[in-house]
Amino acid sequence: MSETFAVSYRRLAAAQKGHARGAPGYSVYVNRRAGRVLATLAHGWGLTPNQVTLVSAAHTLVGLVVLAVAPAQAWTGVVVAVLLALGYAWDSADGQLARLRGGGSLAGEWLDHFVDAVKIASLHLVVLVALWLHTPYRESAWLVVPLLFSVVAVVSFFGMLLNDLLKGKKGVASTHARGGGTFARSMLLVPTDYGLLCLVFLLWGWTTGFLWVYTLLLVANGAFLALATVKWFREIRALDRVAA
Questions:
Q1: How far apart are CA 196 and CA 26, in angstroms?
Q2: What is the DSSP string of 145-185?
Q3: Are 119 and 140 in contact (CB under 8 A)?
Q4: What pTM was computed for the model?
Q5: What is the per-residue DSSP string for the chain?
Q6: CATH code for 20-243?
Q7: Which of 151, 14, 141, 122 is nearest to 60 (CA)?
Q8: Cα 238 from chain centroid?
Q9: Rg (the chain; Cα; Å)
Q10: What angle do CA 55, 56, 58 make, to 5 degrees?
Q11: Domain boundaries along the sequence of the chain
Q12: What is the pLDDT of residues 179-214, one digit of tens each?
């Protein structure tokens, strides 16, 4: 007999690792807990981690399609925010489900990161298309904002992965190793949280308000990237010195 939801949930909670040192607040205190519930449900339904990754991708894809084709109204923003947030929660669930099943695979990790890369590369470009098609800002300088956000998001994701990859070659723990986070650090990093970005689409029906908040998030993410770039480079240069 398969175990109950409560038993699976307790087992997953017990197996849960500490949150990553660089993990922002929404990801740690909201998304991970939502993902734990979804992972427990997925376990009861007999889903594999890779199937959960595809469920996450499907939610995000549908959210982006709605954003691109629907009018810029309040209901659109709610639907998009819910779908993107669910996609993010399912993204947390795949790794948790893998732990509940006894461990993941390299193929699963590749698929998870590949889907993340597609999501990160696409989201801000879809915002650009939606602003062009459905708002009065099609000939406005505001259109530069999603272009810049796309650059910042892609470079941040690539820089993080590259930093961890090069550290791994030297046997050094990942920048995002588990167990070193603090509440204050997580709250400080909330403006860089993908989960917060999902919720900002609740303002989509009030396009001007959305653009101002969206731009503030761009500034925050750009500042984080600038600081992280210096930190990452120093860490890699320190490894070169040790090797020499």
A1: 7
A2: HHHHHHHHHHHHHHHHHHHHHHHHHTTPPPTT-BT---HHH
A3: no
A4: 0.90
A5: -PPPHHHHHHHHHHHPPPPBTT--HHIIIIIHHHHHHHHHHHHHHT--HHHHHHHHHHHHHHHHHHHHHS-SSHHHHHHHHHHHHHHHHHHHHHHHHHHHTT---HHHHHHHHHHHHHHHHHHHHHHHHHHHHHSTTTTSGGGHHHHHHHHHHHHHHHHHHHHHHHHHHTTPPPTT-BT---HHHHHHTGGG-HHHHHHHGGGTTSHHHHHHHHHHHHHHHHHHHHHHHHHHHHHHHHHHHHH-
A6: 1.20.120.1760
A7: 122
A8: 29
A9: 19
A10: 65
A11: 20-243
A12: 556 788 888 889 999 999 999 999 999 999 999 999
Residue with tokens 């167990």: 179
pLDDT attached to residue 35: 94
